[in-house]
Every structure is written in structure tokens, then in C-alpha cells.
């Protein structure tokens, strides 16, 4: 018996299989565009190991034609909604129907005000035991750009936030955090910028105590959901034990609750779960975003993309990776040649091998930073967020989707291979960030995208290609410009990482 809420539809053999859903969604996106890839997908017998080749097919096909990118995104998301259903009281309903008819739970609103200083804190970040602001932060941003850790667009955006401290007063915005307790999320920084914060997370008293403590220390206002009645002015100690709703079980009711706030909403999709549950929670968040946006077209979207994915990047970034491959930087040609020979060519393969000519007259390179350890469900969940971002912007919504750096979160630490690989990543010139640093940077980039007039997030600004929205402000930690295909360097990084202590924040 499956729990109520969002579940995969049964496959022909009766099982609710994430693999079946993966194959169906990717096939739908590629149908009519890459027949050979669709045929291979239908015959694939080892999806868990070979999924990167199909993610590449999706990325290359989208890069080749701007119009095709939007067509694929629409087909993929449509298929994704068809691969899940809503279970309640022993009855299954299509996702779209369930989102229109919330049935069971009323969601009540609890809240609290921060008790910290009313002054808006200047933009700063915690970094390696220090708090960088002003000139020191400016210098660090410049260093990251010069060493290829962040893209030039990311540097420009962060510097603009430094130059516009008035942007940081978020008392005019209502920010919805789906997955508010996300370890590398922006909550802690936004709580110091007078934001109105609607926090959505699972019922878990310890988690809500942490969320409340963060908000109390700042000057924001918190609105929290509860499935039990709460007095309007109830003390937090009364409602924290019953706070929370489950995205996988209460998505229709969450929509009704969000629409009860009579103000424009800025919705961030931040929740993470392990394994196939991550794909399901990504679809639950997508259903919430799509349904609220249909009712309120002024809704803006935010999500944090991952660098450990596959992207079509501009020619300059791709050529930088090619140059580093030619020089075998940073290991050196001789060392790289020895390693390749001893590994039978499996290690230290070149990263970006060619440029793709697009129908818009520009050329793009494919950066492939997928790690098999993260799995196909994670890769597809992130692809769904890319597709929603492209579709929403094309429909006139402001969309903030920025690549967050690889971050040493608990989900990474508990995976021994990823933990060791991240810990040894500096061997290849890649920087892994602490969660609190990532959260502060992503909060600043979100503010930039909400306030700017001439940035990719603004749908009135023309883009040469929809995929440029995904890469404009990327902080990839050096993965994209690396000369080595990252997953063929991970084993060497892991050897070093196993011998090192975890870095301090």
C-alpha cells in the first residue's frame, strides 16, 4: 500500500517505477526531435548507469534550436505530469485534477516577527571563518571570476547587489520558500532583510524550531502553515510543535493557502529528498508553482540549479574548458597522460569536445558535470526545474534560476564517494562551498533578479536562446571550465579527499 499523495502511475507490470517515469518523460521530450535517441531509450536496459547519454541528447537537441528548446520543455513537463497521480482515500486522480480540487485539510496560518535590529544588514557572506563585506567581498568576487570559479554574469550580479544596498529592504516582497529548512537555502540571509517569509516545510518540531530561531534573530516576518487551528496571535511555543505541511501529501491545500495571501508571491522551489522521492517532490513543487501562477500571473519563480548537471554554455566558457583540456590544467600534460594510460583511458577524459552550431547563429558547448552517484532521479528533477523556468519566462513571468555551487551539505556528506570527491576537488581547481556561504550568495542573486531591469530574469529582456537563462549568473565552482570531464576526475579527487579532514566553513 502506497502512502497518500503524489505517486508515480503504475507501469505496465503494475509497479510504481521511477525508472519507467524517467524513460517516458525523456522520450516525450525527444519525440519528433531525436528519433535515434528515442529508439535507444525504449531499448535501454541499464538506465541507472547510462542515463547521462540521454541527458546529453536532451541538452544538445535544445541547444541546436531556441524554438526546439521550448517545445521540448513543454513536452517534457506535460509528460511528467502524466507520469504521476494523486492518491487519496484509496482513489487515484490525475495531478492536474487533484490540484484543482483540494479535499481534506484546511491549512491555518501561524507566525512570528524577528526580534533583531530593524536595520538592514549590508550584503556579506560567511567564508572560511570570516565575514566578508564591502571591499573584502568585492575582492573575493573578483578573485572567483578571475580563477573561473564563477561566470562573469554572476560576478556582475553580486557586485550590483553590493552597489545597491537599497535593494536589500525586502519589506515589499512576499517570498515563499518551498523547503524553507533547506540546508544551503537563503532563509538565514533573507531573515535579516525585512522580508515577508512564507515558510513551507514538513511537520518536524526540531526543524521548525531551527526555522523560528533564524527568523527571531533577524527582522523578517514569518508565516508558517499548520494543519491544526492556531490562534492569530498565538505564542510560537504553542504552534511550533504542530507546524508544517507535506509537499507530497498536501500540495493542493498548500495552493489554496498560498492564494489566501492577497499579495504578489515570489516562490522558491528548494526542497530536497533522497532517491525517487526527490523526483516526486520536484513534481509536487512544480504543480504548486504552475497552479498558483495560473491564478496569479504576477507570481515570480526562483530555483537553485546545480552545477552537477548538464548545460549548454556560451562559446567563451566552452573554449576555456577546451584550452584547459589541451594543457591538462591543472595537473599538467605528463601527469594526466600517465593517469590516462594506467586507467585504460577511463580517467581524465577531455570535458568539452566540440561546439554546437545553433539555429540562432551562435555556438554553444556542452558541459557535462553529472555524477552517477547522484542518480537519474536527481538529474531529471533538476531538468524539470529548468523546463519550468524556460516555460514560465516565455509566458511573461520573472524567473530567477541560478546555478548554486557544489556545496558540502549533509546529503553529500552521507554519500562516501561524493564526500571524498568533493573534499579532494581542489586538486582540479574546483571550489566546494560551505552551506552558509552558498545560502548567502543565492539570497543575493535572488534579490538581484527581483530588482534588476536589464537581466535575464526579466522576461522583457530578449535572450538569443532560452537556455541562456540557466547559465547567465552561474557559480559552478570551476566545474564548467575544467578541462577534465568531472566524473572521470572524481575517483582521483576521492583518493585525496579520503585522506583529508573535511574543510571548515
What would your notes on this structure say?
This protein is of the alpha/beta class. 46% of the residues lie in helices and 14% in strands. The protein is built from 20 helices and 15 strands. It has helices at 18-30, 35-43, 47-64, 66-82, 95-100, 134-146, 152-163, 187-190, 205-216, 236-239, 247-259, 276-295, 315-326, 333-342, 375-394, 410-413, 416-423, 435-451, 468-471, 486-499; strands at 5-8, 84-88, 91-94, 108-113, 124-127, 130-133, 174-178, 196-200, 221-226, 266-269, 300-305, 310-314, 355-357, 363-368, 399-403. It has a seven-stranded mixed sheet with strand order 4-9-8-7-10-11-15, sandwiched between helices. A three-stranded antiparallel sheet has the order 1-2-3. Strands 12-14-13 form a three-stranded antiparallel sheet. A hairpin with a 2-residue loop joins strand 5 (124-127) and strand 6 (130-133). Helix 7 crosses helix 18. The model has no long low-confidence stretch (mean pLDDT 95).
Q: What labels would you give this structure?
A:
about 500 residues; alpha/beta; 7-stranded mixed β-sheet; 20 helices; 15 strands; globular
SSE layout:
Elements: E1 5-8, H1 18-30, H2 35-43, H3 47-64, H4 66-82, E2 84-88, E3 91-94, H5 95-100, E4 108-113, E5 124-127, E6 130-133, H6 134-146, H7 152-163, E7 174-178, H8 187-190, E8 196-200, H9 205-216, E9 221-226, H10 236-239, H11 247-259, E10 266-269, H12 276-295, E11 300-305, E12 310-314, H13 315-326, H14 333-342, E13 355-357, E14 363-368, H15 375-394, E15 399-403, H16 410-413, H17 416-423, H18 435-451, H19 468-471, H20 486-499
Parallel strand pairs: 7-8, 7-10, 8-9, 10-11, 11-15
Antiparallel strand pairs: 1-2, 2-3, 4-9, 5-6, 12-14, 13-14
Amino acid at each position: 500500500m502506497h502512502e497518500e499523495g503524489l505517486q508515480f502511475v503504475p507501469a505496465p507490470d503494475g509497479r510504481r517505477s521511477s525508472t519507467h517515469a524517467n524513460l517516458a518523460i525523456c522520450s516525450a521530450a525527444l519525440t519528433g526531435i531525436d528519433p535515434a535517441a528515442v529508439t535507444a531509450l525504449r531499448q535501454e536496459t541499464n538506465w541507472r548507469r547510462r542515463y547521462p547519454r540521454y541527458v546529453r541528447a536532451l541538452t544538445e537537441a535544445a541547444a541546436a534550436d531556441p524554438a526546439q528548446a521550448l517545445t521540448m520543455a513543454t513536452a517534457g513537463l506535460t509528460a511528467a505530469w502524466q507520469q504521476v497521480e494523486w492518491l487519496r482515500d484509496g482513489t487515484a486522480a490525475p495531478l492536474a485534477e487533484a490540484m484543482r480540487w483540494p479535499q481534506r485539510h484546511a491549512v491555518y496560518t501561524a507566525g512570528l516577527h524577528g526580534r533583531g535590529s530593524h536595520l538592514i544588514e549590508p550584503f556579506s557572506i560567511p567564508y572560511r571563518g570570516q565575514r566578508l563585506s564591502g571591499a573584502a567581498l568585492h575582492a573575493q568576487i573578483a578573485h572567483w571570476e578571475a580563477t573561473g570559479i564563477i561566470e562573469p554574469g554572476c560576478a556582475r550580479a553580486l557586485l550590483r547587489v553590493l552597489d545597491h544596498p537599497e535593494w536589500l529592504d525586502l519589506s515589499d516582497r512576499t517570498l515563499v520558500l518551498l523547503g524553507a529548512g533547506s540546508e544551503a537555502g537563503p532563509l538565514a540571509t533573507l531573515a535579516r532583510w525585512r522580508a515577508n517569509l512564507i515558510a513551507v516545510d514538513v511537520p518536524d518540531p526540531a526543524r521548525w524550531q531551527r526555522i523560528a530561531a533564524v527568523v527571531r534573530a533577524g527582522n523578517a516576518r514569518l508565516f508558517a502553515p499548520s494543519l491544526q487551528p492556531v490562534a492569530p496571535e498565538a505564542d510560537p511555543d504553542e504552534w511550533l510543535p504542530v507546524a508544517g505541511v507535506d509537499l507530497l501529501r498536501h500540495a493542493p491545500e498548500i495552493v489554496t493557502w498560498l492564494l489566501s495571501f492577497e499579495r504578489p508571491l515570489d516562490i522558491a522551489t528548494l526542497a530536497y529528498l533522497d532517491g525517487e522521492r526527490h523526483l516526486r517532490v520536484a513534481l509536487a513543487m512544480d504543480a504548486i508553482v504552475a497552479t498558483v501562477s495560473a491564478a496569479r500571473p504576477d507570481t515570480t519563480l526562483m530555483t537553485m540549479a546545480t552545477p552537477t548537471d548538464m548545460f549548454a554554455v556560451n562559446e567563451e566558457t566552452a573554449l576555456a574548458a577546451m584550452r584547459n583540456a589541451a594543457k591538462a590544467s591543472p595537473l599538467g600534460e605528463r601527469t594526466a597522460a600517465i593517469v590516462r594510460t594506467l586507467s585504460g583511458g577511463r580517467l581524465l577524459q577531455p570535458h568539452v569536445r566540440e561546439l554546437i552550431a545553433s539555429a540562432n547563429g551562435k555556438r554553444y558547448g556542452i558541459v557535462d558535470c553529472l555524477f552517477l552517484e547522484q542518480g537519474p532521479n536527481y538529474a531529471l528533477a533538476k531538468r524539470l526545474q529548468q523546463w519550468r523556468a524556460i516555460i514560465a519566462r516565455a509566458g511573461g513571468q520573472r524567473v530567477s534560476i541560478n546555478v548554486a555551487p557544489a556545496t558540502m551539505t549533509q546529503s553529500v556528506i552521507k554519500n562516501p564517494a561524493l564526500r571524498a570527491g568533493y573534499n579532494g576537488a581542489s586538486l582540479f581547481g574546483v571550489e566546494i562551498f560551505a552551506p552558509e556561504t552558498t545560502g548567502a550568495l543565492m539570497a543575493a542573486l535572488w534579490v538581484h533578479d527581483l530588482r534588476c531591469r536589464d537581466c535575464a530574469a526579466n522576461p522583457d529582456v530578449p535572450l538569443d536562446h532560452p537556455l541562456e537563462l540557466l547559465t547567465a549568473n552561474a557559480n559552478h565552482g570551476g566545474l564548467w571550465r575544467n578541462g577534465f570531464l568531472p566524473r572521470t576526475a572524481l575517483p582521483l579527487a576521492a583518493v585525496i579527499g579520503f585522506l583529508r579532514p573535511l574543510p571548515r566553513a
